[in-house]
Design goal:
By secondary structure, the chain is an alpha/beta fold. 37% of the residues lie in helices and 12% in strands. It is built from 14 helices and 14 strands. InterPro entries: Aldolase_TIM, NADH_flavin_oxidoreductase, OxRdtase_FMN_N.
Length: 414
């Protein structure tokens, strides 16, 4: 049954969606966030990144969500992430916003802090809700420092500052990243968050920081800008955020007045978001659809589903039955920058969406996940250069070059 105040209706992929803040998305296809790693050494968006979003903007998506933009240059998800903590690069950020939105797409900046899974800078100790190492290859080498209450207050200010700067530069809003095992996701997790103060212990306390950040951001950017959140349906990790609690978090976010909730799942220890999941989940198209349907039965909040969507038929089905309002695609945009236009017009009848090759390494699940992302990142420069159909490097070349590239960038990103 549909939730109260939401009548069932047929929704086509090309129909507009007006969010609660009043911003209208021209269609129901979103380019979900993928980490581009195309900032320059100072943290500014590069010309290549701007050209990449110009290509995606021409490709027809109603919504373009950027990859991670860091709120603090002392903590990077990957080297060469864009960082926005003051106005020193605001002109370049404004060029980036204009490039993506020139053809009518709505640009939203994803803002993030990696917490205990920071890759760089290498000379800094990572931070987290508690002083607990993640159990993921490579990330368990440095023990994080537990954040103090003063640190948490500073983080809230940083999220607010980055959101204000993004909107001032021309972005239509921001997406607060609270999924995939990054800092806000760590606070939600009973495994990563073992605090005994008002930010830990009970489910209400563990979601307190996320709700505070959302309230701070909304107050800073006003009622007419988009405030979105990316949330795990579950961590897919023993003892982590479970589905029942995630549903409670989602309903609390609805009460907080967010405009769009993107549903995802997994973290660096169990990377469901990249397709590195149990066989029973991988074989099911749209990994997190069951959760979306359960949430829809209780909520009228605009929902976006990302992860494992492989066919046009599934897109039509979930939009038509009202399970979600937006479809998020990642990997298809790393192969075909104009995939949205094809889905909207039916050109070429793209019944099966393009995706990346599998890069299997026995007993190295987190490495497999990273190599999938590295394969996509290698394609972004080709798209920025004007390629329309990108095949990308092979699995062996990806494996051979990914480690050296990341290491070289990490050593120069201080």
């Amino acid at each position: 049954m549909p939730p109260k105040n939401r009548s069932p209706r047929i929704v086509a992929v090309g129909s507009p969606l007006t969010l609660p803040c009043g911003v209208t998305l021209p269609n129901r296809i979103a380019k979900a966030a993928m980490s581009e790693q195309l900032g320059d050494i100072t943290g500014a968006p590069s010309a290549t990144l701007t050209r990449l979003y110009s290509a995606w903007g021409r490709g027809g998506a109603g919504l373009l969500i950027t990859g991670n933009v860091m709120i603090d240059r002392r903590a990077y998800v990957e080297p060469r992430n864009v960082t926005l903590e003051d106005d020193r690069h605001l002109e370049a950020v404004a060029n980036w916003a204009r490039a993506g939105s020139r053809e009518g797409s709505v640009m939203v900046m994803q803002i993030n802090h990696p917490g205990r899974v920071a890759v760089g800078p290498l000379h800094r100790r990572p931070v987290g809700p508690s002083a607990l190492r993640p159990q993921a290859l490579g990330f368990n080498l440095r023990k994080p420092r537990a954040l103090s209450l003063d640190d948490i207050a500073d983080l809230r200010r940083r999220y607010t500052c980055t959101a204000e700067l993004a909107v001032a530069a021309g972005f239509s809003g921001v997406q607060v990243h609270a999924a995939h095992g990054y800092l806000l996701s760590q606070f939600l997790s009973p495994v990563a968050n073992q605090r005994s103060d008002r930010y830990g212990g009970s489910p209400e306390n563990r979601r307190r920081l996320l709700l505070e950040v959302v309230a701070d951001v909304r107050q800073a950017i006003g009622p007419e800008a988009i405030v979105s959140v990316k949330l795990n349906s579950a961590d897919f990790q023993r003892g982590g955020l479970a589905e029942a609690e995630s549903l409670d978090v989602a309903l609390a976010l609805e009460q907080a007045g967010i405009d769009l909730l993107e549903i995802s799942g997994g973290n660096y220890e169990a990377p469901a978001m990249t397709g590195v999941v149990q066989d029973s989940t991988r074989e099911r198209e749209a990994y997190f659809l069951r959760y979306a349907r359960e949430l829809r039965a209780r909520s009228a909040m605009p929902l976006m589903l990302t992860g494992g969507i492989r066919t046009r038929a599934l897109i039509d089905e979930v939009l038509a039955d009202g399970a979600v309002d937006m479809i998020g695609l990642g990997r298809p945009f790393a192969v075909r920058p104009d995939i949205a236009a094809d889905l909207l017009t039916g050109a070429g009848q793209p019944q099966h969406l393009p995706t990346a090759p599998r890069i299997p390494l026995a007993a190295a699940t987190p490495v497999n996940s990273y190599l999938q992302l590295a394969w996509h990142a290698a394609n972004f420069r080709r798209i920025a250069a004007g390629d329309k159909q990108v095949t990308g490097p092979g699995a062996v070349r990806t494996l051979a070059t990914a480690g050296t590239t990341v290491t070289a960038r990490a050593l120069t990103q201080f």
